TrEMBL record:
Protein name as catalogued: RNA methyltransferase
Keyword Cytoplasm set for record: no
Gene Ontology process terms (BP): methylation; RNA processing
GO molecular function: RNA binding; RNA methyltransferase activity
Organism, scientific name: Rhizobium fredii (Sinorhizobium fredii)
């Protein structure tokens, strides 16, 4: 059913579709975004929450569909975001609570959900400059880790995250949730091991690879002389030899206690804030 809205500043006649049925083909399509195959085919992904959707639009991400719950109807911010989505050529759906909780697979769903076009930064376009830091992740498997790393990289002021090899999908719902919105702020590139090695040789960067058998204390490294690429290993296997040997030295975070290693996202956070320590201050924000 197509609604008829005429109030000022809200989407116009025919621009908001009301949907209450889970078998509606558009809703079926959105539900299919839970599968990576469908996300890849449609180059789409879902992000939940009004603030996130507003931030994404502010940052120029292309919205395909905006979905909001009937209960959010009439809220000025929701009306504004709906009008912005329409202006950008997006579809706007007003749905029942049942539909939005099915889409998001949550009992207490957010009232607003956006379906956006995926965006990767081509690796060849990354030419790191002084003061920039990149995180390169070898075969990261866990969506929570990847999302947390994207969020932490954003918080530390890094310039991008490079995914090497077969990794978990940065646009899965779980990863996007863990980024807390930083997926829209942090450029993500992807590369095979060979592409990464070729790229790294073509740019003037200092690659700091982290390894449990590293001989260099991460606190003794000079992170100021060149742009830095922090190279982090897979959760189970750590860094493979072909990547580890590309780095000048292998850095280690000293540990005590019984734990064999740190969680990947935790280790990345420690490295990021050390590498950018000289650039971060409480007055910067
Ligand atoms: N079993 C794996 C191994 O032997 O390397 C453990 C990998 S660890 C969970 C995942 C990644 O986090 C590592 O490859 C490394 O990049 C980083 N990491 C974890 N603890 C670290 C430490 N103490 N020093 C340096 N890097 C560390």
């Amino acid at each position: 059913m197509i609604s008829d809205r005429s109030d000022h500043g809200t989407p116009r006649v025919g621009q908001v579709k009301e949907v209450t049925s889970l078998t509606n083909p558009i809703i079926k399509d959105i539900r299919a975004l839970a599968q990576k195959k469908h996300r890849d085919e449609t180059r789409s992904f879902m992000a939940e929450g009004l603030k996130l959707v507003i931030d994404a639009l502010d940052l120029g991400w292309k919205i395909k569909t905006l979905v909001y719950a009937k209960a959010a109807k009439g809220k000025p911010q929701v009306e504004q975001v709906a009008a912005r989505a329409v202006a950008k050529g997006g579809l706007v759906l007003e749905v029942s609570e049942k539909v939005i909780s099915t889409i998001t697979r949550r009992d207490n769903p957010q009232m607003v959900v956006g379906i956006f076009e995926q965006r990767y930064q081509p690796l060849k376009d990354i030419r790191p400059k002084d003061g920039e830091t990149y995180v390169a992740l070898d075969r990261v498997r866990d969506p929570g880790n990847l999302g947390t790393i994207i969020r932490t990289a954003d918080a530390a002021g890094a310039s991008g995250v490079i995914l090497i090899g077969e990794t978990t999908d940065p646009f899965s719902l779980e990863t996007v949730r863990a980024t807390m919105g930083s997926v829209f702020a942090m450029p993500v590139a992807r590369a095979s091991v060979e592409e990464f090695i070729r790229w790294q040789k073509s740019v003037d960067v200092q690659v700091v690879a982290t390894h449990l058998s590293g001989s260099v204390d991460y606190r003794t490294i000079d992170y100021r002389s060149k742009p830095v690429v922090l190279l982090m290993g897979n959760e189970q296997a750590g860094l493979p030899v072909e990547l580890a040997r590309e780095a000048g030295a292998l850095a280690r975070i000293p540990q005590s206690g019984r734990a064999d290693s740190l969680n990947l996202a935790m280790a990345t956070g420690i490295m990021l804030f050390e590498a950018r320590r000289h650039l971060l201050s409480l007055d910067a924000r």
